[in-house]
């Protein structure tokens, strides 16, 4: 099963993925976690470009769209492993939410794997900005308002669960376990 966590910067994806991984392993599942952008050469280049002051401008966004799609192709084989639950911190859905134009981003990601389940951590933009360093140019209120809105629209196109990420870490974690349990045949009463 391929589960993708999405959400604006600082939504709590990496925190929640670690907690979910531990819980699934405690329940006997084999789990592998992935992160996009990856630590490949392409991913490292992306991380540099994300810090450019002009990162949100049209042509830099198009460049990022190309690089994110290329970086993603490098991990496609890993997503085919059916012996484990694969949990990914971001996917091509991030490109649809952050980059433009959408029709072109869709073409670039034609061969990207669709998730079996999308978990969208929905966080208020002001909280996102407070939680992040501001090092990346995307981490600003005006830009993230649009991204948050895009995510809520995109979630309708996939098997998805939207989680209120404004709550404390433990509440968000138990909300995630509750929605994921039925997909994995875990009995709801076994959730702590
Ligand atoms: N529910 C929460 N309440 C308060 N703070 C939180 C919560 N979840 C995570 N945080 C804190 O917010 C920051 C960002 O969390 P985290 O790295 O898990 O988010 P992320 O979505 O993976 O971020 P990014 O998209 O920037 O990689 C961290 O300092 C983390 O400790
Ligand atoms: C995969 C992907 C990511 N992004 C953006 C989203 C974030 O601002 C950064 C990634 O860093 P983080 O550690 O997850 O905060 O890149 C994007 O714009 N498009 C994508 O496809």
Automatic annotation (TrEMBL):
Gene3D superfamilies: P-loop containing nucleotide triphosphate hydrolases (3.40.50.300). Signal peptide: none annotated. ATP binds at residues 7-14. Pfam families: Thymidylate_kin. It is an enzyme of class 2 (transferase). InterPro entries: P-loop_NTPase, Thymidylate_kin-like_dom, Thymidylate_kin_CS, Thymidylate_kinase. PROSITE patterns: THYMIDYLATE_KINASE. One of its GO terms (cellular component) is cytoplasm. NCBIfam families: DTMP_kinase. Belongs to the thymidylate kinase family. PANTHER family: THYMIDYLATE KINASE, UMP-CMP KINASE 2, MITOCHONDRIAL. This is Probable thymidylate kinase. It comes from Methanobrevibacter gottschalkii DSM 11977.
């Amino acid at each position: 099963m391929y589960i993708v966590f999405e959400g604006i910067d600082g939504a709590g994806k990496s925190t929640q993925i670690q907690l979910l991984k531990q819980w699934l392993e405690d329940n006997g599942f084999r789990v592998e976690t992935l992160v996009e952008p990856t630590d490949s050469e392409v991913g490292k280049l992306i991380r540099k470009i994300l810090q450019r002051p002009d990162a949100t401008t049209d042509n830099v966004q198009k460049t990022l769209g190309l690089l994110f799609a290329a970086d993603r192709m490098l991990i496609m084989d890993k997503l085919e492993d059916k012996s484990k639950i694969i949990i990914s911190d971001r996917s091509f859905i991030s490109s649809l939410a952050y980059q433009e134009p959408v029709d072109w981003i869709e073409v670039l990601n034609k061969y990207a794997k669709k998730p079996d389940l999308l978990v969208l951590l929905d966080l208020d933009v002001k909280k996102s900005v407070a939680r992040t360093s501001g090092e990346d140019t995307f981490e600003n209120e005006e830009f993230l308002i649009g991204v948050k809105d895009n995510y809520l629209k995109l979630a309708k196109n996939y098997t998805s669960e939207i989680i209120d990420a404004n709550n404390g870490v433990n509440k968000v974690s138990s909300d995630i376990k509750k929605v994921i349990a039925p997909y994995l045949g875990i009995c709801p009463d076994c959730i702590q």
